[in-house]
Amino acid sequence: MPTYGNILLKQDENGAFTTARRAPLGFTDGRNEAWLRDLLAGHPDLLPIEEVDPSFAPLAPLCTELSTEAGPVDAVFISPSGRLTLVECKLWRNPEARRKVIAQILDYARAVSGWSYADLQRRVATATGRKGNVPFEAARELQPDLDESAFVDATARALREGRFLLLIAGDGIREGITGMADLITRNAALGFSFGLVEVALYQFGEQGLVVQPRVVARTETIERTFVHLQAGEGGALQEVAEEAEARGEVRGESSTMADERAWWEPLTRIRFDDPEQEAPTYRPRNHVRVPMPYPGIWLTAYRSMGDGVCGVFFTGAKSEARQVLERLNEEREQILAELPEGSDNRRSSGELGFASYAQLSDFTSDDECREWLAQQLNQFVNALRPRLKTLAR
Predict the structure, then answer these.
(1) 3-state class (DSSP) for residue 306
(2) pTM over 0.70
(3) If we measure between CA atoms, which residue out of 140, 169, 152, 2 comes closest to residue 58?
(4) How far is Cα 383 from Cα 99, in angstroms, rounded to an integer?
């Protein structure tokens, strides 16, 4: 996480400096969430998009208070490539408020992903009071030779695929970043990118105000994960692409998918020994995911009807998982002693991993299978979560 020193202003040719005074949002001069919203909408270059996800740059201001089925979005921008950036401005207070703002912006993304281009155009017209193709006109100010039909098609495709950049902008964003990133990762059913932007303000007495945006967290696109475990001697974790989710093609649910979700639903309500551990989240089609206190790392519990096996394993984004596994394997024997008996496995690359699995035929009922998975998850959390918290620090 980046840290910053004081900002100095050179006063004269003799080398005298004035130190800026930090000016928190929400306390002085009416600088509240609405003030921050209008500041960003009027000066889109303040948002460090290139650092978060350059595919959404440059930003053309579209509107503020865009009405959606989930509520109004503070500020909305669009790029000449037809990609939307949704910004929610929040003062940073307690962990509950942080979790609520993440849930809020995710709800906005889900709502907007159901729109057509005509829906977007109509909503923006209502928000701005302007007529015509407002999104295209806004983007064309940045790219005068922009083709309207190509822009409309690209925007419609981005809406359909959920290709949004979700930004939370606020003041003093420091604590709880890891848990927030995990929460975002667990909910990434659409193709969005996400960033946390701290907008630091510094006051130089009567001489003016300095605004310094900082990216303190962002997601990386995760296109591959380990989702299958072979049964039998020397089984291995298979690395496969979650292509349907990566393309945003998971929309409505078939009856089979609804049955699958219902099967996993009891596991999303389990309580862990660790009071800080969040509950599992269902992931189509055959597993639940448990966030760990390290960015891009989680536990997976799965059931493969085709192979007749179920299990729990440690995984994450490819680069992060490899780095973390290297550290964890330094105390591998001690970790294995704390995991369920038989929890020892290799990934398809041959690298050591942590996994536990069983044959579905070993269980007499679905409830018994779910109870076994819950017990495995709890032991994995107890063994790995404290170590991952230490690594994250």
Answers:
(1) coil
(2) no
(3) 140
(4) 26
